[in-house]
Amino acid sequence: MGIGKFSDDPLAWGHGGQTAGFETLFVVYPQHQTYVVLLTNSASCSTFSFLNYIKASPNLLPEPLSLFMENHPTFPLAEPDYTNKRPRDLGPFTTALSALSAARISELDGLILGKTIPELQVLMDNGELTAEVLTTYYLSRIQQIDIDHLNSVMELNPEALAIARALDAERAGGAVRGPMHGIPVLIKDNIATGDQMHTTAGAFALRDWRANRDAFLVQQLRAAGAVILGKANLSEWANYTDPSMPSGFSTLGGQTRHPYGPFDPLGSSTGSAVAVAANLTTVSVGTETQGSILMPASSNGIVGLKTSRGLVSRDYIIPLVDWMDVPGPMGRTVTDVAILLSAMTGVDDNDAATADAADLAGVDFGQFATAGAAAGKRVGLFVTADETVEQIIQQYQLADDVAEQQRQAYAEMNAAWRALGEQFTALGMAVVEIDSREMTVTPSPVEALEYGFADSVNRFLANLGSNAPLATLAEVAAINSEDAANRVPYGQGYITGSVNTAITAEQYAAIVENNQQTAAHSLRHLFDTYQLDGLIVGQDQSYAAAGFPAITVPNGLSDNGQPSGLTIIGDFLGEPNLIAIAYAYEQGVQGRVEPDLDKTLAEIEAVLTGK
After folding, report:
1. Strand partners, 326
2. What pLDDT does residue 64 have?
3. Helix axis angle, 334-344 relative to 216-223, nearest 10°?
4. What integer is the mean pLDDT of 54-78?
5. Coil, helix or strand for 254?
């Protein structure tokens, strides 16, 4: 929600996505706390028609209208009454944390908060900071801010301080591996680490599983000198457990909460986003099927990059739908995201798709997050031609007065898009207007998710061999059913639906081919026809099925204090151009605002204590 925010008038809107069977469009009247949701199986001009019809006719909406269900939860959410939340273990860090005085924490606040990776590297190079102190500082913040409050961190790496000390010793000896040397990273808990931590996707059935090796991307991060700080909480099974499960909840991790206030933190890479936003880590790694990096990044006021399929290996990641899943970097700035991405890439024999991105393996993406890198880039955005508006009016047979309101509403929306385009023009880019009739086609994910979830998980488990904790998703469902109230407190409708799907393997293969080809053809047409380097979108997730990259960049706070972000789609393996465009926009807009954590924590405490 809030991927696009174009003006401060009563209508703010954004695309939700990954709602089973539908594309989800939220329309918000903040001053009335009034919301409406449109569920549609594709992006189309009729979506814009709906938006403008509502904008032109606000008297049609009751006040207040529920968000997308009759009893939509009020944030921040308390956790259900259940027993299987994993305790966070600070035992390995007791000595280090006890030595950190309040005065020292205050001093470190001034030294560390808001710093980018290059700025932290300067501090470590000149002796003002060490990786051990930086890691201890984050552990202290997790202890004070996160545990049983924001709940963004699932599990802490008991070896984190030892890793940091070893990296400090390397630096003292004159060996610095690169920009990630000594930088703490949180890893989403569906990405395997071959250490003392578990890899669970938040699920009770995987609560005791430890992988026998690192995922390839984790190997790359360790080689680059990153400190693996811990595992981030997530929406369980990548937000595909049950329709009623709120974003950011997992049975093992509990409920992740928004650092900016009483808002939906969105998912499924919820913990990865919240931890970065709340300065509990420098950067984090998330995964996305359709919206699971960009949505929480946008909602929590950070930068999130959904990478091109194959740029970062999908090896040893618990899947939702393996052909659409990709990992990606998350950070407070485009610079940090670019640096983290550079450390994650590489050709991996365990993921054949990485061979397609061999030319970008080992590239320093930080070079594109620089002044002037976006000069002359071509950026597309959608406006609605007058003839398209008239076609819509005729299609819906609108009365004369409503039709005129419709024309005015479209004119205002076009003006808002063009004002956004002027920002990019002022930053030295060429803006290309595209009629909304050419909007990309986003295939419905419902059947792909229903069959693909069980299929992907079952093949993942089969490939684990003797290290497999269980054999099938059906076993997961059976284990949950033994004590559903404590193992799946919100139910497991998606899990059982996938296990019992009537879709056949042949039908699924056709669904995958159609989704990939439809989305890729739609985007390829736009990028080739208009010679684009980037495409600005309000509601669109065609990039997911197509395997194209997309990035979200903070563009301010709404009147009620909720962050929003602007989403830009890039060409396949076009991350260099995408990063350059995003960096220029970030520097021009300066849209990130630090959260008021004292206020938010007080709101959370009031919910937890019933006061």
Report:
1. 288
2. 38
3. 110
4. 53
5. strand
Phi then psi dihedrals of residue 49, to 5 deg: -60, -45
Active site residues: 188, 268, 292
As separate numbers, helices (DSSP H) first and strands (DSSP E) second, the chain gives 21, 16
Which residues lie across from 317 on neighbouring strands? 191
19 secondary structure, DSSP code: B
- Judge contact between 23 and 539, C-beta under 8 A: yes
Question: Nearest 5°: CA angle at 418, between 397 and 424?
Answer: 150
Please check whether residue 263 is in contact with residue 136, taking contact to mean a CB–CB distance below 8 angstroms. Answer: no
Round to whole Å and give the CA distance between 391 and 407: 11
What contacts 589, CB < 8 A, 6 or more positions away? 423, 553, 554, 555, 556
Residues belonging to the chain: 611
Nearest to 50 by CA among 63, 65, 36: 36
- Rounded distance between C-alpha atoms, residue 319 and residue 97, angstroms: 36
Cβ burial 475-510 (10 Å sphere, 16+ → b, else e): ebbebbeeeeebbbbbebbbbbbbbebebeeeebee
Indicate the residue type of 265.
P
> How does pLDDT run across 506-534, given as a tens digit for each residue?
999 999 999 999 999 999 999 999 999 99
Residue 283 · residue 117 · CB < 8 Å: yes
Q: Which of 310, 425, 327 is nearest to 376 (CA)?
A: 425
